[in-house]
């Protein structure tokens, strides 16, 4: 619990406290940049406040007056000609996005000629490499399906990184800090070299990775917790957030085309079905009837819930995932197990099978299926990766990955015996 409290602590802890015995000038009014006013749990956006246009930006020279760190930053920034601080961007160098410099054995695996495709999923648990760059907890990682040597990560340090995992010269090839607060989720666009991310600054942002620029911003009135692209139309994506609103966005018109309303508590995760006709939402039902709305199955086109009494146990579910081929889905429960449900009405919980050996304990720990759907993998609060047999729910193997909680684990889209995992202390590890 201490780890959770530290990670979600107010970002203004570093602000220096002024001595009350010293004379203080009247405070000047500041405005937030580029955002409608919404209270958010981080003060990073406010830290970039600027003096209003009618102010000179120069404080009167008062001998012995103490000037705070924040005021010094504002005064120094007032001479800038632009109206806002540009985000820190480290665009990729020429060739760093390419797979030209990859080792020969990796190239063979990515092209489908590797032995892993013959023998199937046989992860030995050997640490292949470690990626370090995030300064705080990582919330989400995802491999690119179109450029399978690239991995994206999003963290509490307000950053989105793109990694060329097997590049010997430079692994972290892109750094994007367009978000003003913690980034909660990141997804590769099914078409092109684009990333979609969302976070505590009440927005989702589409980034052109090749050019290193933000192309679109989708503002909301809530912290955005989860995003998912439509499996059949890459112009559409779902977003779910802290006020319980679930929205379907169209990137072509930059507008909401559907909104799914049920007076919900905060949305923890959303997941499209394989055919894109339905989606699952998982919500924090702590303020409502625990037997309803924890997991809801929605009809995408009709905008109605097909069932809202799917999971009636007294636990929230931070992650939901559809099986890649079977008609079922799983949900990570804060009861320290993964539950499995039928994806056909009436969407019954399988009371005789659950995946339980790992721990969740309030962390946003995610689970996933292997490429062939034969295994279920999950992170754990003890820093380990757990692999379960999908059919029998038996524990197949356990890998000690980190000293702090393992938050997300994802199988590689082309190499079935390779997984990437991220931790609460900002590390990423790749195992084969």
TrEMBL record:
SUPFAM superfamilies: WD40 repeat-like (SSF50978). Keywords: Repeat, WD repeat. WD repeats lie at residues 131-165, 176-217, 224-259, 369-398. Coiled coil: none annotated. It comes from the Eukaryota. The keyword Nucleotide-binding does not apply. CDD domains: WD40 (cd00200). The keyword DNA repair does not apply. InterPro entries: WD40/YVTN_repeat-like_dom_sf, WD40_repeat_CS, WD40_repeat_dom_sf, WD40_rpt, WD_repeat_protein. This is Uncharacterized protein. It comes from Dendrobium thyrsiflorum.
